[in-house]
Amino acid sequence: MTTQSPPTLDVEQLTQNLYAEMERLGKSTDTFTKLAANRLNVQIGLTPKEAIWTLNKMTLYHFYPQTPPEQRKPVPLLLVFALINRPDIFDLRPGNSFVEYMVRQGYEVYMLDWGRPGPEDAGYDFEDFSLKFLPRAVRAMQRHSGKREFSMCGWCIGATITVIYAAMRPDDGLRNLVLLTAPLDFSNKEAGPFNKWLNTPYFNVDELVRQFGNVPGEIIDYGNKMLKPVENWVLNYLKLWDNLDNPAVVESWLAMNNWVTDGVNFPGAAYRQWIVEFFRENRLMEGTLQMEGRTVDMRNVKASLLNVIADRDHIVPTCQSVTAMDKFGSRDKLLLEMKGGHIGLMVGSGASKRTWPQIESWLAKRSQ
């Protein structure tokens, strides 16, 4: 009978591992101390730009071109985000910025910032944003660029606003329309928690608007996070904790956290309209949505259409976009399903390799 001798300890390797772990712990402790003292901050929206137009709280930005004039696309691109959160998500940080990517591809990029509504803005509704404010921003862009035709990209509620504009102003120069995770069809009342929550008789939207005027961004943010409470309030911070020694991960986490927590109040009249006329009554898809005394008819949309959806979108289920395709009057239209979530679709680790190139490739062929 033979006995196995105990394994030989590699003291040198153990020592190296110990020193490496102590170094990692030291970096993590230093980062945690700075975070706790609010001494770490990451700026977002850093691609160079200029404000070319303002109205009330709104600002239209033009990003400085980064390619020679002969390499630029002749059709400018206007970016429109939702009424909640800041539009800086289009330009999160260097290396993870859709704006930066498109500018380097030769596009003249403009971005509309709705601003932060005050109590005096509580009466603004979707007609104001889609058919009064957005057209003025478009005209300012046309004057600045010297081009009548343009492309427009709307994200989330911003996509809904751009669809209304495209349906009601089909002859104002819009050549291409790109929609990102667009909430359009609310007929499936079982699709996603929001449909269930907001359609219950216990959700009194009139009282909410009466109490606040503008619905606070904190309430909107809380509702979004409740869709995935464990992921948002536990796993999100565990990821940060596990990577305190990794500056790249910490910087990325801080950039996204800065954007998420910088909420914008939802103008009261627009919020009530969003809940009642869109979520509950589905007027846009039913053909009963009235603005300027006319029906908002999606069959009037003439622009080439790219509708991008995310397969793991828990905020705007894919059915809210897919079923709308047949309603558009565009002859040239494409539904593109990508991997990712509502936000990760455009700023996740794979966005620059998957989503952005596909959008740019589609747009480039229609921007000559």
Explained architecture:
The protein has 368 residues and is α/β, with parallel strands linked by helices. The chain has one domain (49-364): Rossmann fold, CATH 3.40.50. It has helices at 11-36, 98-104, 126-145, 157-168, 193-198, 205-212, 217-226, 229-242, 247-261, 268-280, 283-286, 319-322, 344-347, 355-364; strands at residues 49-55, 58-63, 77-80, 109-113, 150-155, 174-180, 290-291, 294-295, 304-310, 333-338. The strands form 2 sheets. An 8-stranded mixed sheet has the order 1-2-4-3-5-6-9-10, sandwiched between helices. A two-stranded antiparallel sheet has the order 7-8. Helix 6 (205-212) packs antiparallel against helix 10. The mean pLDDT is 90.
Lateral strand order in the biggest sheet: 1-2-4-3-5-6-9-10
Structural class of the secondary structure composition?
alpha/beta
Spatial extent as radius of gyration: 24 Å
What low-confidence regions span 5 or more consecutive residues with pLDDT below 50?
A: none
H/E series, N to C? HEEEHEHEHEHHHHHHHEEEHEHH
CATH-level-4 superfamily name = Alpha/Beta hydrolase fold, catalytic domain
* Percentage of residues in strands: 5-15%
**Helix segment tally:** 14
Overall strand count: 10
Q: What's the level 1 CATH class?
A: Alpha Beta
